[in-house]
Amino acid sequence: MKKSTAKLFSKPLVAIAALSGGAAMTAPVTAQAEISGNIGVVSEYLFRGGYENNGTAVQGGIDYSHDSGLYVGYWGSNLDYGTAPATTGFENDVYVGYGAMAGDFSYDVSLLYFYYTGVDDADTPEFGASIGYGPVSLGMAYLIDDVTWGNEGDIYWSLAYETALPSDFGFSATLGYYTYEDQGEFESGLGTTESSGLKHVDLSLSHPLGATGADMSITYMIGGTDRTDTDVEDTVILGVSFGF
Prior knowledge:
Order of helices and strands: HEEEEEEEEEEEHEEE
Protein name: Porin domain-containing protein
Signal peptide: 1-33
Mean pLDDT: 87
Radius of gyration: 17 Å
CATH class: Mainly Beta
Shape: globular
Largest sheet: 12 strands, antiparallel, barrel
CATH superfamily: monomeric porin ompg
Structural class: mainly beta
Strand content: over 45%
CATH topology: Porin
Number of domains: 1
Keywords: Signal
Distance between the termini: 31 Å
Low-confidence stretches: 1-30
Number of helices: 2
Strand order of the largest sheet: 1-4-5-6-7-8-9-10-11-12-13-14
Number of strands: 14
C-alpha cells in the first residue's frame, strides 16, 4: 500500500511538494506566528513513488507556525488504490514539530501520525528529521510501527533541491531512497527481498495561475524499484493548488 511527513516527508504546504510525494518536510520558519492553509487537486496521488490514488485526488491542510519555530498541522487526501475489490478511503496526517535556521543552515524535527478511514491496519506514527543548506535539504522519516504498507524500522531518505526560475517559474528535484526492514507483522514483512533501493526521482515545475492566487504544476516521476525489487513505472502528474 505505502507510506508523508511529518512535514518533510509527509505532505508539504506547496503544490510541487504535494505532487512529488513528500519532497520537502521542513516546516516554514516564519517571522511571526501565523495560520496558513492550502487546498488543491492532483491528477494522481503518488507518495514516495507509490500510488495512493490512481485518479484525481482532492487534498488540503492547515498549519499553525509560531515564531519560536514550533508548528502543528493537518493534511488530508482521498484515496483510491484501484484494487479488486475496490479499496477507497481517506488519509489524515496530523503532525507537530520544530524548525529553525542558523544563517543558510536549517534543521527540523517532527512527529507525524497517519490515520486512515476506510483502510485497515494502516495507522502509525512516524518520526522525521532534516537538515538543509540553502536550496538543498536532506531528511529521513522513520516508521515507528508495523502496518500494511511498511515495517517498523523502515526509513525513507530524501534529497531535495528547489529554486526559482525566470518568469515566475519554480523548479524542484527530489530523490527518494528507502532502507527496509525485512520482518513485520503483516504478510511476513510485506514480501521484502531488498534491504534498500532507489524508489523515485521527481522533477517538478510550477507557475502562478494568472492573478488567481493559485499555482499550477507538473511533475515527472522517474520510478525506481520497491522492496520486492519490482520496477515502479514512470508517470506525469498535473496539479493546481491554492494557499491562504
